[in-house]
Amino acid sequence: MQDNIDIKKYKTFVFDCDGVVLDSNVVKTEAYFRVAKKLGATDAQAQALVDYHVKLGGISRYHKFEWYLSEVLHQPVTEAALETLLDGFAKELEAGLMACEIAKGLAELRAKTADANWLILSGGDQEEIRALFAKRTEESKKTLASLFDGGLFGSPDNKDTVLAREIANDNIKRPALFLGDSKYDHEAAVRAGMDFVFLSDWTEVPDWQEYCKLHKIHVLPNIQSLLTHAV
User: CA angle, corner 156, sides to 153 and 159, nearest 5?
Assistant: First the structure.
């Protein structure tokens, strides 16, 4: 579905990060494979982690590594084992996240929705996202963090938990729009009573067209195209 969108009616915009604001899905996928290999995994074990990551787009890395330890490596899920994976993953990610493309049109959309508050809601690590967004700047040379006055949120809390909390805090006001690129983003938006637009350009969901058609989801390529379809 690609009807026009009345962006002026929304009091809150919630953005996923990877695949929506940043072209970072591939960066993260490659980082999962590399950290597994560096810690002794076979190619098959590392690929199993990658496949699970892609299948569960938008879900916290904490859950993915717990699954990997338990179901692939058949090891106890200890705090030490998790920390080793998480630390290694963060190191693999850092350079890629500083270099990946930022979505075009963010500053223009921010200007057109000046009365709304903006939030980032990511499956990525919350402190990592906050540090990254304080460093990176978009087309108008503003830091990414400065655009998101409603806050930057991520794991270890999952998206359902954050949405429920921020709605209760009145930080998310309705009507609200969630911009995402995964099935989990859509499901979380529906559970929170929010409108949803699926952005397809950078998604890693293999059957996204079928999924969006089945659920009658509004699809656009990217944030820039939201401006084109705005009324």
Answer: 55
* Element spanning 6, H or E: none
Residues 14, 166 contacting (CB under 8 angstroms): no
* Fold adopted by 7-22+102-228: Rossmann fold (3.40.50)
Q: Which residues pair with 220 in a beta bridge?
A: 199
CA atoms within 13 A on the CB side of 209: 1
Question: What does the block give as tokens for 10?
Answer: 């929304």
Q: Is 180 helix (H, G, I), strand (E, B) or coil?
A: strand
The structural domains of the chain, with segments of one domain joined by +, span 7-22+102-228, 26-99
For the chain, the average pLDDT equals: 94
Q: Are 180 and 16 contacting, i.e. CB atoms less than 8 angstroms apart?
A: yes
User: How far apart, in whole angstroms, are the C-alpha atoms of residue 38 and residue 164?
Assistant: 37
The predicted-structure confidence for 158-215, as pLDDT tens digits, reads as follows 999 999 999 999 999 999 999 999 999 999 999 999 999 999 999 989 999 999 999 9
Closest by Cα among 203, 200, 174, 204 to 189: 174
**Tokens 């699954």, located at residue:** 67
What's the pTM?
0.85
